[in-house]
Amino acid sequence: MQHGYPRPQLQRADWTSLNGKWRFRFDDDASIASPSDIDDWPLEIEVPYPPESRASGLGDRGFHKVCWYQCDFEVKAAADRVILHFGAVDYAARVWINGHLAATHEGGHTPFWADITDMLREDGRQTVTVRAEDDPHDLAKPRGKQDWQLEPHSIWYPRTSGIWQTVWLERVGRSFIDKIRWTPRLEGFAIGLEARIGGVQHQDLSLELELKHGDRLLARDRYRVVDGEVDRYVVLSDPGIDDFRNELLWSPERPTLLDARLRLWLDGKIVDEVQSYTALRSANVLRDRFMLNGRPYVLRMVLDQGYWPDTLLASPSDEALRRDVELAKAMGFNGVRKHQKIEDPRYLYWADRLGLLVWEEMPSAYRFTRSAIKRTIREWSEAMDRDYSHPCIIVWVPFNESWGVPELPSVQAHRHAVEAMYHLTKTLDQTRAVIGNDGWESSATDIIGIHDYDSNLDHIRHRYGPEVEPEKLFDRRRPGGRILTLDGYPHQGQPIMLSEFGGISFQARAEEGVRKIWGYTAVEDAETFARLYEDLLNTIIDTPLFSGFCYTQFADTFQEANGLLYADRTPKIPLERIAAVTSRSRTYIPGGV
């Protein structure tokens, strides 16, 4: 299956995918130390699908602590450099090239790479070996919705071990563009560019930027590289009037991207060239409303687990990722909350290009230990670094429902962890809103997210209706039996969102391998399902207290039958009927949107 260019915001022409058939073996007692200890490879796997998935050719969902991969490829050493990339390996990886240790990495959702040039054989025939360690019982590592029991239970799903995103090679020059980072600044009609130059540093290196909107040239500038860096703001001509400004602004309704070409120059020659893109848009909070491009914007979102029946966390193909974005939009949603998953960059690419907002959420650990917090901080920082430049991302969510910090009301260290992650996230990105802990027990946060799966409309109106004052809501209401804000953190006027609700379970057909379905509210037929969805959405949309909502959920996920779509993305009711209520305008609300 084609998976598309793995790093869509820094693309080079010369790259090679290593996806396909690899040699494979399990190492349950972790007795193998290096590739030289392996005498045979009894299995074969299809990379990048995890061994637990059917698409891998194995479908083995047993407990395996360590697995090994190996494949042969051809590439000849030259004057330039050869870089080996891994999109994601769960959880800890060690990589050898021709028996030489090339890279180590810890973190199951973030990329890493190695310069393998000096390890290549002269005849061009190369071998890469990967050891992936992923203890299925370790609850102190970020694992998201991956179950620690043999059979998926409650709201947790089959595990994903080892390689689950694209493995690929690229050639770069001895000096090359290593990283780029885009920061839109709407108030100045400017685009910030941060570029880091890798490899050999020269005094005469310069970086050329060409920025276009379609065929229209917006900027062409050239900057001297100083200490391996370029940091500049490109100020665009501001049309001044909203109608003309809007042509350049990115939104779900008009996802305008600005194409960028960057060239690295040395001694009058181009030594590296990459394609990228960015966008002009702002995403922030003003008093009790979320703001997109300086205007109040109602978030109409759907919770998306990002799993597929045959491939688990891995995507079946690039087309499948695009189709998920298209389906969310076809159902009338303007955004998704990617739940407990750092999604494949190709999904974010299609969300950028097609116009879909994304909340990015850190996969949780389920024990509170020093190791768990350090692991979470490291991996979250890497995820933010990878995804910072995507215009579709509007909110960062470090914690969900107090998972990994279960004693927030009573243990100060748990509070400190949430507050530290909130402030770290705000430090690494000053341009987006941050929700410290979504669902309940809020402390440091820009948006207060509430999770409430009550399907009784009278209860919803009573809890959140126009007669309810926010201070009384936070003093008295305990959806799920949990306080909404911690002592010392009263509501300070932040936007309030119903960030999980619904969860209506309906299944008119049996799903392969699913013995028992699960949901918050069960219905027996499609018409009842449709009417309850419509009634819930109409009630929530017309509740002035909420600045947005996130319905649970996008698609059935294993035993959870509460999707608007079946697991294979077939709609349970017509998409047009879903969209009609999801996208409906609010009835008139005096003084607001």
UniProtKB/TrEMBL annotation:
Organism: Ramlibacter alkalitolerans
Domain Glycoside hydrolase family 2 catalytic, first and last residues per copy: 289-448
One Pfam family in the UniProt entry: Glyco_hydro_2_N2
Gene3D superfamilies with a match to the protein in the record: Galactose-binding domain-like, Glycosidases
Protein name in the entry: Glycoside hydrolase family 2
Beta-mannosidase-like galactose-binding domain sequence ranges: 67-141
One GO molecular-function entry: hydrolase activity
Residue runs in coiled coils: none
Domain of life: Bacteria
Keywords: Hydrolase
